[in-house]
């Protein structure tokens, strides 16, 4: 009997390790989606820079999170003998890998907002500071109960802030951090003439669409594998992710009037919004959450560029910042049993937690990029911006010429 129990325990630990490893690899693949979404959206002279930023940001994020960020968020360090690290089939290590891919999504999100005019080195410095300190501070507060905020919300309102897969912890944080960076960088040269928007057409719609599809597929690892164990897996999360994605697509198609940029960002808006409550909502609630997010993205992106004249290249603040906050609030609405959800969620806690994430990200974004702006400078020179980041930084263009 003891041998049978040991075998079952080994199987469970091995299965959980494999499960979360698959999730880590799926979210790692999403970074290719971030890369190609940016490559397809920016002008041809900035494509190499887009690709280079995403992979280098991931490397810096890994180092920052391994040595500092993960310890700040969860109090865990890996500075111990390898024989201790392989306990439970190395589940703790793979859990780090999984959560790292979330942390690394933050600079990948920011990258799209600051494209075409940000300096390479200072952006990597920003990545280090954000992934080592800013993001883990809020991540640990929400997902590890640091500082007693979650305990206070549960005591005061009957439920802690619920964010199953990171609508606020990851996406809103990334979007609002990017907002500070975009404001401090300023607009691209020539983007506005006599107060009117000048169109900078995407360089490659197929690459943009490819990036969107890679992100969509990977998102099912992002959401479903957030259960982190086989026991916690739920088909509800998968179907809710699907319905939100479809809702975002349909709304962006209708409101965006067939525009391919809106059409391929709409599903991403829906997926951003459903992360928080994907384990609680009824699929119809997830559909509504995604549809509202898709329409919100189209409206906010248009207003950002035309009315407010904020030059957010990929619209990462509307997509991740605003739709992420909507996701935190939507969890409080559609997670209620009265609307078909599983319940156990407080609207007051969702509002407070969402607002807190926005404030931490805003403060962090302006602090990090403000510090780098006055110390190193964060923007390319006018000449380098005109020539393009590819030639100015990497000394090579996306297309070779014989």
From TrEMBL:
Asked if the record carries the keyword Transmembrane, the reply is yes
- Residues spanning the membrane: 20-42, 54-73, 93-112, 124-144, 164-185, 197-221, 233-255, 262-280, 286-304, 316-339, 351-372
Topology with regard to the membrane? Multi-pass membrane protein
One Pfam family of this chain: Ammonium_transp
Q: Name one GO biological process term.
A: ammonium homeostasis
Location of the protein in the cell: Membrane
Domain (Ammonium transporter AmtB-like) spans 19-395
> What's the main place this protein lives?
membrane
Q: Which SUPFAM superfamilies match?
A: Ammonium transporter (SSF111352)
Q: Identify the InterPro entries for this entry.
A: Ammonium/urea_transptr, Ammonium_transpt_CS, NH4_transpt_AmtB-like_dom
Q: Show the GO MF annotations.
A: ammonium channel activity
Task: Indicate the family of this protein.
Answer: Belongs to the ammonia transporter channel (TC 1.A.11.2) family.
Q: What is this protein called?
A: Ammonium transporter
